[in-house]
Amino acid sequence: MAREAGSRSPQGSEGPGRYGERVFRPQDEGEAERIDLAALVYDATTIARLRQLGAGPGWRCLDVGAGTGTVARLLLREAGVAEVVAADRDIRFLRSEPVAGLTALETDVTSDRFAPGLFDLVHARFVLMHLPDPARMVRQLARLLVPGGVLVLSDAVDVTTDDAPDTPYILAMRAMWRGLRETIGTDISWVPHCPRLMLAAGLAPVAAEIHVPPLEPGSPISRFWAGTWARARVAMVGTGLVDDAGIDEAVIWLDSPTCAGLSPGMLTAWGWKPAGTG
């Protein structure tokens, strides 16, 4: 999961927020475990897609916003790639479990000075949704590909509709997305347009898919959302869309057999840098 973020803040707030500072701070107890719950949900889908796209022996890979490093380690262990550079603003979790072929790079990927080299694969999961100007970031990451390399980006999409019933879960989700946007700039509205942004960055061909994990009582994804709401509680309540009691009710609902909702999906888009280009 990502640690990279820049944002705007609402009028009257304490100032600009960033992912990992005002919300989802890596130093907070249990944050690594929360991230790893998402890894349990999404890693199998991610590594299967990366291997289908050709990730394997000889590939040099960049994992942006690497979090605890689960994808980077899977690339090395299961895909057998030659090297993974795992970039993050905070690499404490990456340092805790060093492995051969994994280079932890503490950096801000939004900086114009971010130039770690060229790669066969550039991957980022749940990163650009927290960053300002995703179109610029797509262009910047595309420039880090060797000719014939592939950019793979995964971010969240809200698959609920405007007329979805006002269950405790739906109310909590609406408050979460608005609260995160107002405090740290999280924005998922552009995510369905990611393939078009890749085309505009000079990548072709491009494609995309969506994975929606099932919400089931006690499942990793349900526990992930409960933990995410706990960390985003202040931002959620600040929207006026939900109060503390409403969040508590949503957590209970997640673990109930009456839970009948859709988790946000993970849209994965990929695009190739044409061979013969500089």
Structural commentary:
This protein has helices spanning 31-52, 70-79, 92-95, 134-142, 168-184, 194-200, 220-238, 244-254, and strands at residues 60-64, 83-88, 102-106, 119-125, 145-157, 206-211, 265-272. It has 278 residues and is α/β, with parallel strands linked by helices. It has a domain at 31-157 and 186-211 and 264-272: Rossmann fold, CATH 3.40.50. Strands 3-2-1-4-5-7-6 form a seven-stranded mixed sheet, with helices on both faces. α1 packs across α7 and α7 (220-238) packs antiparallel against α8 (244-254). The longest helix is centred in the first third of the chain and has 22 residues, at 31-52.
Structure described in brief:
The protein is α/β, with parallel strands linked by helices. The chain has a domain at 31-157 and 186-211 and 264-272: 3-Layer(aba) Sandwich (Rossmann fold). The protein has eight helices and seven strands.
CATH superfamily of the domain at 31-157 and 186-211 and 264-272: Vaccinia Virus protein VP39
**Overall form:** globular
Radius of gyration: 18 Å
Strand content: 15-25%
Q: What is the level 1 CATH name of the domain at 31-157 and 186-211 and 264-272? A: Alpha Beta
Overall number of strands: 7
Largest sheet: 7 strands, mixed
Helical amount among residues, as a percent range? 25-40%
Report the uncertain regions.
1-16
Order of helices and strands: HEHEHEEHEHHEHHE
* Mean pLDDT level: 90
Judged by helices, strands and strand pairing, the structural class is alpha/beta
N-end to C-end Cα span: 30 Å
Q: How many DSSP helices?
A: 8
What features would you highlight for this structure?
278 residues; alpha/beta; seven-stranded mixed sheet; 8 helices; 7 strands; disordered N terminus
